Amino acid sequence: MEALRQDDPRRFGRFTALARFHEGASAVRYVARDTATGEVALITAARPELAGLPAYRRRFQAEARTAERLAGGWVAEPLDTGEEPEAPAEGPEPLWTAAGYVPALPLAEAIGIAGPLDERALRILGAGIAEILSRVHAAGAVLQGLAPGTVLLAADGPRLTAFGPLGAAASAEARPGGQLSVRLGYLTPEQIEGKEVSAASDLFVLGLLLAYAATGTTPFTEGPAEEAARRIAEDEPELDAVPEALRELITRCLAKDPAERPTAGTVAAQLALEGAAGLARGGWLPEPLAAAVADQEARVLALDVPREDSEPEDAPTAPEPEDARTAPEPEDARPLPAPSDGPASGAPAAVVPAGDGGIGEDRGTTRFLNTGPRPPRNDRPTTQLALPHELTAPPEAAPAPAARPLPPALPGGPTAPRQPGPAHGGPAPYPAAALPAGPAGPGGPAGGPMVSLPLPPAPAPAPDPAASRRTLLTIAAAAVGGLIVGGGSVAALGSEDTAVATDDKPAPKPRRTLPGQPPEPRWSYAHPASESSPLTAAVWRDELLVVTSESQASAVDLRTGKRLWQRADGAKGQAALAAGADLVFVASPTEFLWLSPKNGKVVHRERYTDAFGDLPGLAVGRPAGSSGPVVWFTGSHTVTVKAPKPKKGKKQGKDREVVQAHFFAYDIVQRKELWRTPVPAGRAPGAPVYRVVGDRSADILVRQDAVSLTAAELKAAKGKGSVRSFDQKTGKLLWTRSYGAVSPEAATAGDEDGSLYAAVGKDLQAFETDTAKPLWRVEGSAGSAFGTPLVAGPLIHTTERSRLVGAVERGSGRLVWRRSTEVPGIGNAPSLTLSGSEKTLIAADAVQVTAFSAADGERLWKFQDIGSADPKGATVSASYRAFAAGETVVIQRDRAFYAFPVA
């Protein structure tokens, strides 16, 4: 960290720069203060010469959007993307993003301070990164941005700052002729062989990163520089110095065949069963690193906003002759020092033009594909973070010498080997750092040979067989010689012309099932974008998935995932229940409907004005629960209470509008009301919100949601919630009781044996329902709270806001098992669903779905879907939901539905 220089910007939107935090080849990071809140932030600002390149601007902004999508857990949420800056008087608009400041050290710097990490720290580091990769891969994307300089070590766990090959992980430079030079990080065997990059490629890089963190070097560094690519593609890794307990897992990550590498979810589970956040509790950094992080935080927080009249410091630099920035240096005078942003400088480079001439649609953005109707497939080639196809050039634009393993010097300077030497003085952590370097550009020395990113498919003339053969030979030479290598395509970058030669790809090998990998979905269904989003979804007799929306109700065949029918009559439906063996019951805002499961035709309807004629204007709320043919719900209507006749000489008072509410039981097979009982109206508008928490032979137990309680009711309760008991046959209110310190908002569930289970503070407590006597208590996580428990046979399955899921014995409260879903952070507790056989427990929250063995808590698999294929589209924030249907569990997130086989 150093003082601001004379030419550094002082303002970035609402942020005031305080100091330089870190300087890289493509961007400068500043410590800044939010003028609105006073909070400290980190600004990443592109160098002006790069900000003026349209290709870099598009990519920079795309990566900022990606960071927004992945925010949470080990990814800091951006505070501002700087997409509407104030235009300066001269030059390009500044290009920057702001994120909250987290005291942390780059991994490369941390290794230089304290040496390799111990086993526990390695587990936390690897699990945290794997959790991020799992989210990226669930989106159908590939990260390609891991590097020691982009992984940060904070006091509570790792952080990742790179979201794509042109993002923070790359070292980019503006080159003569308006081109963009980008040096990538680690290479993988499939990249070297010219094959498609996939999610499995990220796992290879993760293996290299963990090996570096464990040893201070990578397994493929030793040996001649010109053979670095061959070693990555052919040699077995040297992992003797890696802790024995982690050696096998890292070896699997470094498998040459991508199909043999584990999924990100598997790696996260094997490294930290309780999740990286759980394992990191209580501190995880060695003392020297913890002290360095604390010192950094203290120095940052001590910074003051510079005065307007203060003179910024500037490091003295000798003036550079004009022609010295363009003339090539002598070959013996050009060893390539590592730039300030770490060892990524030795990575391969790609060059794209800066101009926009002839470019139509901007496709140079992060792509989240395979998130629509087709389910994502873990660790299979899906999509890449690709350069714009419009920015590619004909293959003949790049030299392709056939007689030499290394290419000749490109225009602008000769080739020179990259000199290893990270901050700690050991071998260079990047295998690509040993590859030959390219020419120098105006931004500093360039990195190694140019390597393209996988290009998105585009129509192209079919190549003749001879051309295909020549292309394959070119790829083989490029693996070592520094030509451009892409996923199934070969092109040189640097012209506005476009040409792609595509080779036939061999059929992928069948994938073996790996721990943590979700099963292949039986089908997936995407609710049409032309229709409004789903409001509710329910399973009908293990045959149909009935989905309601603002415009209609529709049904999906649970066997095939095909939509069978849609019916406008069911618009805004609040439930979909089985009315006997042959009808679907739907409650709409104005009527009860009975639909044919075959075609959705309305077989019968009961309007509330007819069924409840003595309650004019009845508004029916969401069903409180159901059992067999009986459904319970609340309803309310407004009545006019006439003012009493005034006394002689007094004025007539005004009539009053009063809301009256009732609790109903209704038989949906016989289509008749069983009973109703008056209840407090609660907070208007609408009926009070009830939820049946226990269904016993003689009575039902009901909780009223706190949101529908009036302020007077909440005050009278004195912070305690209550449970009401209604007679099953007559609806008579039997009693109302409070249970210990259970609040009105606390999650509650009861069983048929007379016990009630409720969240009390951070714990889960059992009570005898009829006497309110406490039975037992299960201690929860500090700062957390239990969600609604799920009663199943002799067990109660529990869920906590800290993302812990478990099981306890109903009778004693003895803990049977407790596991983490591996989702960091605090939010609502996951919702729980049991499979039809009750062997699999599904935990669903806003981030992912996790499947456990209900008996012993073994984590079976995880599933995620980012939900949108358009990087500029709205981010899907809806939580996951799960519906059990026989041997299938249907997972929903907003418009997307997936049917997974379960035990």
Automatic annotation (TrEMBL):
Any Pfam family hit: PQQ_2
SUPFAM superfamilies, sorted: Protein kinase-like (PK-like), Quinoprotein alcohol dehydrogenase-like
Region (Disordered): 304-466, 498-529
Domain of life per record: Bacteria
Residue ranges constituting the Protein kinase domain according to the UniProt record: 15-273
Basic and acidic residues bias (residue ranges): 322-334
Keyword Kinase: yes
GO molecular function, one term: protein serine/threonine kinase activity
Family annotation (SMART domains): PQQ (SM00564), S_TKc (SM00220)
Keywords tagged on the record: Kinase, Serine/threonine-protein kinase, Transferase
Compositionally biased residues, Pro residues: 396-411, 454-464
Ranges annotated as biased composition (Low complexity): 339-354, 385-395, 412-438
Protein name per UniProt: Serine/threonine protein kinase
Organism (species): Streptomyces griseus subsp. griseus (strain JCM 4626 / CBS 651.72 / NBRC 13350 / KCC S-0626 / ISP 5235)
Lineage: Bacteria, Bacillati, Actinomycetota, Actinomycetes, Kitasatosporales
